[in-house]
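To the wet lab folks,

You asked to see what we're planning to order before we commit. Fair enough. Below is the target structure as tokens, and below that is the sequence we designed to fit it. If anything looks off to you, flag it before the synthesis order goes out.
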């Protein structure tokens, strides 16, 4: 072990290897624009799974209008590169998603800050509340209940009364 540590300590970068490579701002902006069409996702699974089956299942489930490239970039972490931002937004709007009863946590990529790449602790869920009286189906009561179990998502499509039998919380 000491021998390996000694060899490691003697490693150094030569002048040639330390040379800085300049990249134009237009190339950087093109990359950032492409990344913004993508999602990062982590499959919360603790057992081995067929990654090809996972990729094909997600593509089939999402019923996209345009292409999608899925690349594993970490342990159970995937980059979903959509050809069209509308497809990406549709996938986000219909979450949560699962594969083999395991949650797939999805989030947009924020490449400008590179933060949160490993934080997959939150996602949105639809919850269904039963037996609420009609006068209890207001937007405000929905938000109170949502804030009690998590953070309620504000939905401008709802009026002051929510007549449906479900509310969106995340």
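Sequence we intend to order:
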């Amino acid at each position: 072990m000491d021998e390996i540590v000694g060899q490691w300590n003697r490693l150094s970068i030569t002048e040639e290897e330390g040379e800085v490579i300049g990249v134009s701002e237009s190339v950087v902006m093109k990359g950032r624009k492409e990344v913004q069409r993508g999602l990062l996702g982590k499959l919360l699974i603790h057992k081995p799974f067929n990654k090809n089956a996972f990729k094909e299942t997600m593509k089939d489930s999402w019923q996209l209008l345009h292409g999608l490239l899925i690349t594993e970039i970490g342990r159970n972490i995937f980059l979903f590169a959509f050809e069209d931002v509308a497809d990406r937004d549709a996938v986000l709007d219909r979450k949560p998603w699962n594969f083999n009863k395991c949650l797939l946590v999805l989030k947009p990529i924020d490449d400008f800050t590179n933060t949160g790449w490993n934080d997959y602790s939150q996602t949105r869920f639809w919850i269904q509340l039963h037996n609420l009286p009609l006068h209890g189906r207001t937007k405000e009561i929905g938000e109170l209940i949502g804030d009690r179990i998590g953070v309620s998502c504000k939905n401008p499509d709802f009026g002051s009364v929510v007549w449906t039998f479900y509310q969106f919380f995340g």
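Structural context that might help your review: The radius of gyration is 22 Å. The first helix runs from residue 2 to 10.

Thanks,
Computational group
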